[in-house]
Amino acid sequence: MDTEHLLAALPADGFRVINEGRPDYLLYNTCGFIGDAKEESVNAVLEGVEAKKRGEAGKVVVFGCLSQRYSAEMPGLIPEVDAWFGARDLNPLLRYLGAPASRLVRRFQETRRPYAYLKISEGCDRRCSYCAIPFIRGAHRSVPMEDLVEEAAQLASEGVKELILIAQDTTWYGLDLYGHRALAGLLERLSLVDGIESLRVHYSYPADFPDDVLDVMASNPKVCKYLDIPLQHISDKVLSNMHRHIDGDATRALVARFRESVPGLVLRTTMIVGHPGEGPEEFAELLDFVRQARFERLGAFTYSEEDGTWGAAHLKDSVPEEVKRMRLEELMSLQADISRSFNQSRVGSIERVLVDDVSGGMLVCRSSSESPEVDGEILVDISGESCDAVQDPSSLVGRYINVRITAADIYDLTAVPV
C-alpha cells in the first residue's frame, strides 16, 4: 500500500511505471521484520545495483522497513544505492524525486482486483517481546477517518468491492485522534461508501477488545462475520513472557464472547510455538485450547529471536529448533482436522461469493469466510450445461454470485453456480 500511495502521488506528466526499457529510478520497498523477508529484500536491492552497473537502470532508491531498521548499517553495506528512506518517509522520498508532498490518500493499482487492503493506522504502542514492529514503524498513529473514506471511495470507483482493514493493531484505531477506540465507527462510515459491499477486519489485539466492534459485525450486513485476531498462546506463563497483557482465562472468555455475540463468526488466529518459557506442559495446554476453541482458520510459526526486541535482550531462546518444528507439525496437524471439518460442514449449502479471478476454466471465489492470500478459495466449475450462457467468464470477476458447495478439503472448496 505504501508503494501504491507513492506511485499515485507522482505527477502523471513526469513519471510512469514501465515494465520494459531502462528506468530512471528503481524503487525498492523493503521488509525488515523477519529473516526470510530481510534476505529477500537485500537480494532484490543487490539485483537492482547490478542492473545499474550494467547501465540498464538509473538510480537505485530504497525505502521501507529494512532501511528504517538498519539505517546506520545499510548505506555502508550497499554503498551503490543512491538514496535510503525509512518506513514513514514517503513525502521526503517524493521530494527527492522532485514531486510535491502529498496527503497520500490515493492509490495506484497496476493489477486490478475486486478487493484491496486498507491500512487504517501505522505503528504500534504495544511491546510484545518477540516483535520488532514498534521499533521499526514507531508509535501508533491513526489515519483520519475522512482520509480513509476518501481512499475507499477511490478504490470503489475502480471496481474494488471488498476492503480488508489492516494495521499493526486495528483495535487501537482512533485513540490518538479521537480519544477513544473508533474502529466500530469507522466500519459504519466505510459501509456507507457507494460500491463497497464487504468489510473485513484483520490484526486485532485481544487485550481490551472493544465490544462495539462485535455489535457492528452482528448487525451490519456489509461487515463480514470474520475476525483475524492473533492470540499467540494460551499459557499464562508464555503470555506473560510475550508481554501480551492478557492471561489464559481472559483469552478463553474472549473467544466465548465472540461466539456468543456474533453467531456464525469465523475466527482466524495465529500461534507461536517454542517461545521462551514454553515447556511440554505449556504446549499441551495450547493443544487443548485449540482443540476446544476450534478456530476455523489458524496459522502458526516457530519462535525466532529478532534483534532489537525485548525478548532477544532478556529471554533465552531455550527451545531447540527440532522441538519447535515437531510442535509446529503437531499443532498444524490438529488444526488440519478442524479446518477440514469446518469446510466439510458447508457441503450442500448455498453461499454468496465474490469472484476474484478465472483460472483453468474455474471461477476463483471467496465467501465471507475466506480472506484473500491467507485462507483457501472456493473454486466454481463453470463447465456444466447451466453455465453455457457465460460466454466470457472474465466478465464475472468482481461480481457476487450464489454457488452450492459440492466438496471440501482442508483449505479449498469446490462449488457450482445456482
What does it look like?
By secondary structure, the protein is of the alpha/beta class. It has 15 helices and 16 strands. The chain has helices spanning 2-9, 35-53, 65-69, 74-77, 90-96, 133-137, 145-157, 175-178, 183-191, 211-219, 236-242, 248-261, 280-293, 310-314, 321-344; strands spanning 25-30, 59-64, 83-84, 115-119, 121-122, 141-142, 162-166, 198-201, 223-228, 266-273, 297-302, 350-359, 362-366, 378-381, 400-408, 413-417. The strands form four sheets. The protein has a six-stranded parallel β-sheet. The longest helix is centred in the C-terminal third of the chain and has 24 residues, at 321-344. It is globular, with a radius of gyration of 23 Å.
Write the layout of secondary structure elements.
Blueprint: H1 2-9, E1 25-30, H2 35-53, E2 59-64, H3 65-69, H4 74-77, E3 83-84, H5 90-96, E4 115-119, E5 121-122, H6 133-137, E6 141-142, H7 145-157, E7 162-166, H8 175-178, H9 183-191, E8 198-201, H10 211-219, E9 223-228, H11 236-242, H12 248-261, E10 266-273, H13 280-293, E11 297-302, H14 310-314, H15 321-344, E12 350-359, E13 362-366, E14 378-381, E15 400-408, E16 413-417
Parallel strand pairs: 1-2, 2-3, 4-7, 7-8, 8-9, 9-10, 10-11, 14-16
Antiparallel strand pairs: 5-6, 12-13, 12-15, 13-14, 15-16
